[in-house]
Amino acid sequence: MKLNQRSFGKLYDKLASKIYRFVFFKVRSAEIAQDLTHDTFLKGWQYCQKNEVEFPQAIFYQAARQQIADFWRKQKFQVVSLDAKPLEMIDDQPSLDERLAKNDELNQMFAVLATLPEDQQEILTWRYLDGYSYRQISRILNKPSGTIRVTAHRALKQLKEKWNQC
């Protein structure tokens, strides 16, 4: 199916906060996450206009992963000051992600989660933060759902072990 404006709007409403959170976890900057989320939906829209899409969520998550990879690839060639402060959204009240990021326990959990391989991080994020089924994740990653279940189980086991060591 090709997306029309109305179905794209509904999909955007459904996915925008999830895609933003997914990107934010990878780049840890609200401003950059907003920009990459915008670019993700633009690329996804362009793709869906030209191609028949069976599972549009997968297209948008794949686009987000590509945007994140491109962002970090470009960062390799930039000098980063260790004194630089993280970019923050210009807003009267901090966003939910910023408030949660300030929580010490959550930061510790992110640190533990970051020790897992990237595919395990993504699967746990999609499964437990975004509430996707194993089947939905398998469609996003184009892997069998059994593989996703096993990977999630192993990742949770590793996460629990590392968390208990803290």
Automatic annotation (TrEMBL):
It comes from the Bacteria. GO terms for molecular function: DNA binding; sigma factor activity. Coiled coil: none annotated. The keyword Cell division does not apply. Belongs to the sigma-70 factor family. ECF subfamily. Pfam families: Sigma70_r2, Sigma70_r4_2. Keywords: DNA-binding, Sigma factor, Transcription, Transcription regulation. CDD domains: Sigma70_r4. It comes from Candidatus Portnoybacteria bacterium CG06_land_8_20_14_3_00_39_12. InterPro entries: RNA_pol_sigma-70-like, RNA_pol_sigma-70_dom, RNA_pol_sigma70_r2, RNA_pol_sigma70_r4_t2, RNA_pol_sigma_r2, RNA_pol_sigma_r3/r4-like, WH-like_DNA-bd_sf. SUPFAM superfamilies: Sigma2 domain of RNA polymerase sigma factors, Sigma3 and sigma4 domains of RNA polymerase sigma factors. This is RNA polymerase sigma factor 70 region 4 type 2 domain-containing protein. Residues 11-76 form the RNA polymerase sigma-70 region domain. One of its GO terms (biological process) is DNA-templated transcription initiation. The lineage of its organism: Bacteria, Candidatus Portnoyibacteriota. Residues 111-159 form the RNA polymerase sigma factor 70 region 4 type domain.
